[in-house]
Design goal:
By secondary structure, this protein is of the alpha/beta class. It folds into two domains: 1-27 and 78-114 and 161-236, Rossmann fold, CATH 3.40.50; 30-75 and 116-154, SIR2/SIRT2 'Small Domain' (2-Layer Sandwich), CATH 3.30.1600.10. The chain has eleven helices and nine strands. The protein has helices at 2-11, 22-25, 40-43, 46-49, 52-57, 59-75, 80-87, 101-105, 163-173, 193-200, 227-235, and strands at 15-19, 92-95, 109-112, 115-122, 129-131, 150-154, 178-182, 204-209, 221-224. The chain has a six-stranded parallel sheet with strand order 3-2-1-7-8-9, with helices on both faces. Strands 5-4-6 form a three-stranded antiparallel sheet, with helices on one face. The longest helix is centred in the N-terminal third of the chain and has 17 residues, at 59-75. It starts with a helix and ends with a helix. 42% of the residues are buried. Bound molecules: ligand BJW and zinc ion (ZN).
Length: 236
């Protein structure tokens, strides 16, 4: 199976990677929905920590949680899957991940669908957006522009995805030969809809995941295994 998938990749000229939390799992970053391996949503209520309503109800709690996640991400290093993707500068990396591990691995083309934890933005969307040192103590800060509150520049439930990133991702996925779907449950929309979009546009879908996912039915090849082992094999 892996040899056949590799042959398809070698013949492809336009490869897009669509990744989720499983890509960074072996760097020690928790996934969201793995109940067995301690996914974040098994321990924390996503509506309290990753929704605009949760932030408005208890902003300090949300800021504290993201402060700890920033520290965890700062302490992590890219794994062999990030590095294998980065070594192929022709691959467009559409990622749902808010960590900076693809950047630190040196990937040339990255489209961040759910924003980045490395920046803060104004919760009232006045346009203020700035980089934040990942080890800064978590403090609730006012927006210097409009006096509203600052929050991580990530996309929470019920919020729209950044238009520019979404447009680029749609273009990339509707115009590729292969979509490599790595470490995502494919449960969160609209991001997960990119897999069906690529398939309907004629791309081969190669899934790398430790288990089946909501996208399994779309796979031309489903490679069950760890991203850090399977992705380098596929791309070398
Ligand atoms: C490995 C591995 C290893 C492990 N190797 N693999 C009903 C139907 C359809 C849609 C909706 C609905 N009700 C609500 C919605 C909309 C909602 C949604 O999709 N909800 C579903 C959960 C039902 N979507 C939204 O709200 C989005 N916005 C939107 O729709 O706007 C329009 C709108 C406007 C107004 C009102 C309503 C709608 C926004 C979604 C934002 C998601 N945000 C988060 C948090 C980001 C910030 C942060 O990190 O704190 O994004 S949630 C979380 O899920 C995060 C992820 O990017 C995202 C996807 O998760 P991912 O990456 O797939 O991780 P997991 O944990 O789910 O899966 C990991 C996988 O890895 C597993 O399969 C493992 O097996 C695998 N794995 N180790 C390989 N070593
Ligand atoms: Zn503001």
């Amino acid at each position: 199976m892996i040899e056949q998938a590799k042959t398809i990749i070698q013949a492809a000229t336009r490869i897009v990677s669509f990744s989720g939390a499983g890509l960074s799992a072996e760097s020690g970053i928790s996934t969201f929905r793995d109940a067995q391996t301690g996914g974040m949503w098994a321990k924390h209520d996503p509506m309290r920590l990753a929704s605009p309503q949760g932030f408005e109800e208890d902003p300090k709690l949300v800021i504290q949680w993201y402060g700890q996640r920033r520290k965890d991400i700062a302490a992590a290093v890219p794994n062999q899957a990030h590095c294998a993707l980065a070594a192929r500068s022709d691959i467009i990396n559409v990622t749902q991940n808010v960590d900076d591990l693809l950047h630190r691995a040196g990937a040339a083309q990255i489209i961040e669908l759910h924003g980045t934890i490395a920046r803060d933005r104004c919760h009232s969307s006045c346009g203020f957006n700035e980089a934040v040192p990942m080890n800064d103590p978590p403090v609730l800060r006012d927006c210097p522009n409009c006096g509203s509150q600052l929050r991580p520049a990530v996309v929470w439930f019920g919020e729209s995805l950044p238009t520019d990133a979404w447009d680029k991702a749609e273009r990339a996925c509707s115009d590729c030969d292969v979509l490599l779907v790595i470490g995502t449950s494919a449960a969160v929309y609209p991001a997960a809809g990119l897999i069906a979009l690529a398939k309907s546009a004629g791309a081969k879908i190669i899934i790398v995941n430790t288990q089946t996912s909501d996208a399994s039915h779309l796979a031309d090849f489903e490679l069950l295994g760890k991203a850090s082992e399977v992705v380098p094999q596929l791309l070398h």
